[in-house]
Each structure stands twice: as C-alpha cells, then as structure tokens.
C-alpha cells in the first residue's frame, strides 16, 4: 500500500489519506465497491467494443494514475532522479520549429576523420556527422537521434558505433575496428530533434495512447471496460493494484457486474489524431524516419590484421555499458564480454540443458527463444496447456534428458490479444515463487510494452524485479539469471508514436544502469539487431535469434578456457 509524505498544507495529506483509504477499501471490502453506481456510461459491450476515453477526453484530471502515488525511500528517490537525469535529452532552442528548419537527412552528410590513415584491428575510427535542414542550412543545435554501424558485407561482419552529440548540429560517431579488411560506415537519422520533442510530449501527456480492455462476465451477461495505469475522469474504477508489488492497474467499473467478475485482459487499440498537422511532417517514412545519411567523401577504410602476439581478446570483463559489446563475423556474434560457443547442433543444446529448468519471462521477443528451442531440439516437445496462441503460458518438456522449458508473459501493461486474468502474473511475484539452484535458469526481458508510459512506470517495474532477483540470488546463489535487452525495429509514422527506437533506447539505458553491479548476465539484443545486415524488425529473424540463443546458452554452459 502506498504511504504519504508530509506536505506544507493539510490538503495533500487529506488527498493521500483518501487515496490510501480507497486502496484499503477495495482490497478488504470488494463487495462494497461492487455496489458503486456510475454517472454516465463507461461500459462497452463485447459485440460493440468502443474506446470509452472519448467520453472523458475533455478532462485533464487523472485521479487514478498509479505511478504517481508511490512513496520512495531516499535511496530510491535519488536513484530515480539519477536515472532520469542520465537519459535527459537536449531541447531545441524553440519549442516550435518549422518543418523546413528541421533536420533533413538528404542534405546532411558525414566524413571519416583521416580516411586514408593506417588502421589496424583494435583501433578507433572517428566519423563527423554534419546535419542540415531542408533549406540546406547547417543545424545549430542537437537532440537528433542517430544510429551508426560499421560493416563488411562480404564477411557478414558488423558492429555498432557510439554517437556523441556536440549540441551544435555536429555529431561524432566512434567505432572500434574489430576485424580486418574493407570496413564501411553507415549512419542513419532515426528521428530529427524536432520529432523527439513530440515523442517526449506524448510520453508525458498521453500515456493513454495505447489503451487496454478487460472483459467481465457472469453467466451469459458480459461487459468490457477500458483499463490502464492511468484512467482519466471521475468514473468509478476497479482497482487491480498488485498486493505484493504495488504495481498499479485500473479498469473502469462495469455498469452491472462486480470487479471480481473480470475474466480477461487484452490490448484495446491505439489512439488516433495525436499530432498536429505540423507535427505530422516530422514523421514521414521516406523523408525523416530511419533515413540514411551519405558520406561526402570515402565511406570505408582498410583495416590491417592485428599482430598475433596482441591477444584477440579485447575485453572480457562483463559490463552492460561496454560499447560495442560484440560484433558479427561470418554471421556469428562474437562477444567482447564473454566467450560464446555456437550451438549449431541440437545435441549440444540438449547436453547443455540436461537436468535444467529454464524459465523465460517477458514479451514476444523472448517468446521467440521458446519457439526457437522447441523447434530446433527434437526431444524438446511442447506440452499443450490450452493457452491462447502467441500469448501463453507455454511449456516444453524433454523427459529423456529431464529438461523443462517454460514461457510466461509479464504482467500489465502488455499489448497481447486475450490473456486470461488468472494468467496475469508479475515477474517479481513469479521470481519469489522459484526455489532456484544450480539447475535453475531464468531469462527476462521487459521493455516494449512500456514505451508509451512515463519512464517512472518502467523504473518502478524494474525496481520490483531487481528486488526479487536479489532475494532469489541471496537464497540460491547458484541460480543463473540472464537479461535480454531491447532491440531495434522497423519504424513508420504510426509505429514511431508508440514504439519508436528512441523510446526503446531510453528504456534500455535505464535497464542497463539498474541491473549493473548485480549477479546477472546480459544478452545484448540491441547491438545484435542494430549491427546485423538484415532489416530491422521487432521480432528479429531466425539467424539473429540463433545468435541470441548462443549467447544465452554460453552463460548456461560456459566454455572452459
């Protein structure tokens, strides 16, 4: 339950006391809450689903915005402030920049610093990126979101670069040269700085732009209402805040049914009309979303091999902030933070996983791991739990080798099709129910479904998960825990408003900071998807998933060097 902090007047105290009483009243007297009456209609019939927000869109009051009602310790408050400061993004000098003055990738260019210099494996390559607007004038401020990589197509090699914003329209990209041969440089504008400001506004002001719904049923009668972390207006709500983690979740109360009659959760849809006409110009697929920036000179360098006496091991100390964390060579990921064994034979995977229980928690991007392993390992057979397709939970079993593989999606917010209410589980709670031990393996990913919410919502979720991980490792230190990072994806005008790579990049940065320094391992899906030659995809293609699995299993069964 949330607790209050003293304010300068009695009114904040009274509001906190009222909020606490509402939560307690729901938890311990649900039958009284069920008797509430409503003014106006907020319910939705199953056969005619409509978004009920239209009835309350004119009000800006959000009395049930759970992430704002948490009380933090001094340490938690300091951490949150530090995390938010670390991802703070530069603002344009004017809040309203005309489209013609925004960044135009076709007028912009990059140059390789010392392109004719002598380079060998392990050296740093510096690239200067010069951004201009649609009138061809140099930009004089920063805040654009760029992505950069080096690659050698014939070698199927690639690695990401580190971008530094000079805050004057110039950017520097730094690359570590990790293989010999001709190495090309590619730079892309993901979003101009003017679009980033729109994304920032949407994240803070419109956390409802993806909406959810729950079905309530009793006998033959059913109702469907809207749900979210924040629900605007003064209509009565069902409070589904989790008792153990305090994770907030609310649904508008059905008109006739009780809150206890909820049977399912589902994605409702996406809000339309979020942008002004001028703002929409900053989100055009063939103009300024993930568009290449070309070089004004040579776009490649020749890299000489490193002397054999210089060890090929560059850095083996695992750190989620190492950049780049690895690179592709001949389509195989080579980590700079740990040795990777490539499991090309299903027997090798079986031998690695024998006698183990593997828990996969998260979204559809880690469900891909479950699907890959179940399809690739012949003796690993899926046990039909009767779960909805693509939703889960799922389970595969190899009785001969005593392997149990399980997948479960994380708790709301989650944009899946229908999830039974009984299967809505928070990762932190699931971790608290695991005994752990040397034969227990846990992999977690959680990011994509939080991109439409203020970052505080995500920080809270990670804080709960981290606490449960620390407790699990304290009671069972031999438990192996792996975090799969976010990944890049294909973007268009609409997807950018909900799942932009910039949103994912910010959340991923927060996750890496929050989990650094504790005994977990990382599979860098971000760099694995950005460094590869295949088009970006929310659900990376099999070759990328295979490399993720190789990195994961290399933690489970580390090579003895």
Automatic annotation (TrEMBL):
Secretion signal span: 1-19
Key word Signal present: yes
Pfam families membership: Neurexophilin, NXPE4_C
Annotated keywords: Signal
GN (gene name): Nxpe3
InterPro entries associated with the record: Ig-like_fold, Ig_E-set, NXPE4_C, NXPH/NXPE
Segments forming domain NXPE C-terminal: 333-557
Protein name (record): NXPE3 protein
Species in which this protein is naturally found: Indicator maculatus
Family: Belongs to the NXPE family.
């Amino acid at each position: 339950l949330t607790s209050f902090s003293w304010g300068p007047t009695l009114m904040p105290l009274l509001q906190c006391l009222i909020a606490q009483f509402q939560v307690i009243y729901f938890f311990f007297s649900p039958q009284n809450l069920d008797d509430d009456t409503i003014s106006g209609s907020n319910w939705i019939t199953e056969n005619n689903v409509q978004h009920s927000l239209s009835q309350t869109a004119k009000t800006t009051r959000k009395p049930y915005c759970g992430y704002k009602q948490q009380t933090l310790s001094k340490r938690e408050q300091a951490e949150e402030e530090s995390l938010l400061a670390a991802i703070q993004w530069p603002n344009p000098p004017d809040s309203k920049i005309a489209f013609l003055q925004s960044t135009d990738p076709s007028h912009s260019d990059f140059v390789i610093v010392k392109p004719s210099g002598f380079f060998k494996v392990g050296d740093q390559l510096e690239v200067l990126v010069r951004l201009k607007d649609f009138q061809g004038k140099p930009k004089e401020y920063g805040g654009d979101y760029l992505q950069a990589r080096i690659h050698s197509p014939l070698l199927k090699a690639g690695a990401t670069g580190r971008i530094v914003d000079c805050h004057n329209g110039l950017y520097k990209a730094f690359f570590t040269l990790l293989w010999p041969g001709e190495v090309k440089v590619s730079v892309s504008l993901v979003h101009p700085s003017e679009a980033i400001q729109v994304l920032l506004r949407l994240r803070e002001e419109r956390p409802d732009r993806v909406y959810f719904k729950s079905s309530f049923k009793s006998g033959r009668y059913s109702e469907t209402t809207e749900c979210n972390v924040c629900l605007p207006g003064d209509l009565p709500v069902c409070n589904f805040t989790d008792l153990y983690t305090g994770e907030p979740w609310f649904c508008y109360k059905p008109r006739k049914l009780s809150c206890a009659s909820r049977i399912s959760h589902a994605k409702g849809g996406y809000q339309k009309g979020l942008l002004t006409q001028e703002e929409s110009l900053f989100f055009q697929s063939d103009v300024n979303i993930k568009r290449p920036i070309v070089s004004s000179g040579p776009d490649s360098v020749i890299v000489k091999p490193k002397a054999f006496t210089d060890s090929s091991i560059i850095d083996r100390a695992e750190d989620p902030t190492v950049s780049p964390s690895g690179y592709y060579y001949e389509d195989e990921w080579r980590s700079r933070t740990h040795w990777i064994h490539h499991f090309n034979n299903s027997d090798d995977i079986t031998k690695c996983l024998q006698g183990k229980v593997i828990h996969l928690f998260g979204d559809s991007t880690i469900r891909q791991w479950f699907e890959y392993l179940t399809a690739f390992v012949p003796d690993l057979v899926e046990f039909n739990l009767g779960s909805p397709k693509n939703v889960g939970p799922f389970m595969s079993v190899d009785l001969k080798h005593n392997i149990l593989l399980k997948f479960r999606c994380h708790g709301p917010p989650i944009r899946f099709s229908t999830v039974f209410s009984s299967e809505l589980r928070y990762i932190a709670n699931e971790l608290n129910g695991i005994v752990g031990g040397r034969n227990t393996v846990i992999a977690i990913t959680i990011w994509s479904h939080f991109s439409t919410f203020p970052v505080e919502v995500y920080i809270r979720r990670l804080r709960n998960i981290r606490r449960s991980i620390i407790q699990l490792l304290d009671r069972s230190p031999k438990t192996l825990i792996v975090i799969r990072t976010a990944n890049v994806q294909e973007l268009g005008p609409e997807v950018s408003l909900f799942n932009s790579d910039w949103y994912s990049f910010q959340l991923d940065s927060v996750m890496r900071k929050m989990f650094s320094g504790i005994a977990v391992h990382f599979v860098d899906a971000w760099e694995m998807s950005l460094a590869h030659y295949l088009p970006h995809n929310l659900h990376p293609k099999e070759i990328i998933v295979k490399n993720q699995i190789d990195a994961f299993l290399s933690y489970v069964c580390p090579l003895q060097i």
